[in-house]
Write a structure and sequence with these properties.
2 domains; four-stranded antiparallel β-sheet; 10 helices; binds zinc ion
């Protein structure tokens, strides 16, 4: 009974706050009282969120996604690094476009690659939530959901929506774009060995599907900056392992 009374007063308080937020300047006194209560309310809210997070972590569907996960309201960042994986989706309206910093780094990488005789093409970089919806639905229709979940992200979960993921291939061999044949070529091997020098990591390495949630993709690179990329490359790890995050 105590609880329901408390909930009611919270509802009333929320209503007051909403009114204050939408209302005119006369509501100043009311606002002050509300803001004193706000921190209490926030603590309650945080408690609830932590409990909910723990509970849902255990239940994943066949594709590796948390069952009945609520849509994201903000982008997950750790130490300033944007995380996008099956555990941490992005809001549908998160639309930063292609990262300029990542594009500049890619151009430098390409200039360096030319000295060794390679020319790369970033054939897919930023993808909007809407674009990913179309792609994923097509793959699902073609290969079935279970197979599609291993290589294509559901809308809101694609790292391409961050603007920091670059799908890279040999510009002279477009037939190998988005194929692991690329990883077997001299160009693919060169990229795997050198991308970190320009801030890119191979995001879904071989034998790391249990960590990243995705099968090996020799073409999918993620910009994280030179320092972190070098560390991850030297450790032979993944972004999830580096940050101690769930995939
Ligand atoms: Zn990709």
């Amino acid at each position: 009974m105590k609880c329901s009374k408390r909930s009611l007063s919270l509802v009333a308080l929320t209503a007051t706050m909403l009114l204050a937020a939408c209302g005119d300047e006369d509501a100043t006194t009311e606002k002050q009282t509300s803001s004193q209560e706000t921190s209490k309310q926030q603590v309650e809210k945080q408690k609830t969120e932590v409990t909910t997070e723990k509970k849902v972590e255990e239940k994943r569907d066949a594709g590796g996604y948390i069952i009945d996960q609520k849509p994201a309201t903000e982008v997950k960042k750790v130490n300033g690094i944007v995380i996008a994986n099956k555990r941490y989706p992005m809001p549908g309206d998160y639309a930063p476009g292609e990262s300029k910093e990542a594009r500049t780094a890619f151009e430098k990488l390409n200039a360096f690659a030319k000295k060794s005789g390679y020319t790369f093409n970033a054939f897919s970089t930023y993808r909007s939530y809407e674009r990913q919806t179309v792609l994923y639905e097509n793959y699902k229709a073609k290969d079935g959901q279970k197979a599609a979940d291993r290589y294509s992200a559901r809308p809101g979960f694609s790292e391409h929506q961050t603007g920091l993921a670059f799908d890279i291939g040999d510009a002279n061999v477009p037939n190998d774009f988005a194929s692991n044949r690329f990883g077997e070529t001299e160009a693919g091997k060169w990229l795997a060995e050198n991308a970190h020098k320009y801030g890119f990591i191979m995001r879904y390495p071989n034998d790391k599907e249990d960590v990243t949630g995705y099968m090996y993709e020799s073409w999918h690179f993620r910009y994280v900056g030179v320092d972190i990329a070098t560390k991850i490359y030297n450790d032979g790890s993944t972004l999830e392992e580096y940050l101690g995050m769930e995939g």
